[in-house]
């Protein structure tokens, strides 16, 4: 019997989030040809985004487009998703392991009395079994799990599973009616963005991170310039955040964000275990530190012993030339 899969899509700043395409790819790794995939997208004035999304799956896209959905509100989103679940009775629901996904997934799992696997970084088929890998203890160990039952709820860590490719036969777009829940217990009054970066930190392919060695707010400017040239994002250690050199929204580590970019450039960061917890899974790690004994060099693929205020502008210049 064919099964139904649901992917909860995410829109941010008027764009489809990359992790949604990664969640679609995750579904394509586990589903059979006869199974049906439905992407659910919620927002305001999202016709173009829904159209774009439809190019990545051969199934259906449920579109909820309403002014009240302009800003994410867990209560409203969950009310809608419950309706979708009741209609489709899915075998599995996939979400990004983002702030939104981390909030909605347990609500969905509790509602369906389903098993949940969070922060999945890879999926493998082994015979009839589907094996999900997820990091433990801040990336110091990994566990491989499988579901023994359905429904199943899965969140996918950004930047680990390749994004889905466009498909030949696009999904059918279905406009869904939205009637707002009558008695909301909370409403979003305002959203204040603390970071101005052009690229989302958790989804960036290249992250240029600064630590206490950056020494001041102005010290982050050369890092931002390098990140801009590479179309990357700027991150930070807690040392830099605590010192007031940057916003806590940039903090990477055990108590900050977890990033897994293609390239992580750590500038003036010593490499404390709590920092490594947020970036050790990066594909290539480059460390710039003037102390040759800094622990970050033990993890780094490439190390530059030197003053970051000399090295970073040189890198920026060289990349500018190379990418011109
Ligand atoms: P430092 O350790 O002070 O290192 C600064 C580095 O800059 C040094 O290695 C120095 O050689 C180098 N340097 C100085 N000047 C230059 C220069 N001009 N050029 C090149 N290099 C230079 N930390 C996190 O990052 N993220 C977390 O999520 C986190 N969570 C924590 C949770 C708990 C419960 C605790 C106890 C700690 C946590 N920490 C976290 C803090 C962590 O232990 C470290 O204190 C912190 O990561 C240190 O930041 P840093 O590397 O920027 O600073």
TrEMBL record:
UniProt xrefs under Pfam families: ETF, ETF_alpha
Residue ranges annotated for the Electron transfer flavoprotein alpha/beta-subunit N-terminal domain, each copy included: 4-188
Keywords from the UniProt entry: Electron transport, FAD, Flavoprotein, Transport
Classification via InterPro entries: DHS-like_NAD/FAD-binding_dom (IPR029035), ETF_a/b_N (IPR014730), ETF_a/FixB (IPR001308), ETF_alpha_N (IPR033947), ETF_asu_C (IPR014731), ETF_asu_C_CS (IPR018206), Rossmann-like_a/b/a_fold (IPR014729)
Nucleus keyword on record: no
Tell me if Cell division is a UniProt keyword of this record. Answer: no
Gene3D superfamilies (UniProt xref): HUPs (3.40.50.620), TPP-binding domain (3.40.50.1220)
Recorded superkingdom: Bacteria
UniProt lists the family membership as follows: Belongs to the ETF alpha-subunit/FixB family.
Question: What is the protein's name according to its record?
Answer: Electron transfer flavoprotein alpha subunit apoprotein
Taxonomic lineage: Bacteria, Bacillati, Bacillota, Bacilli, Bacillales
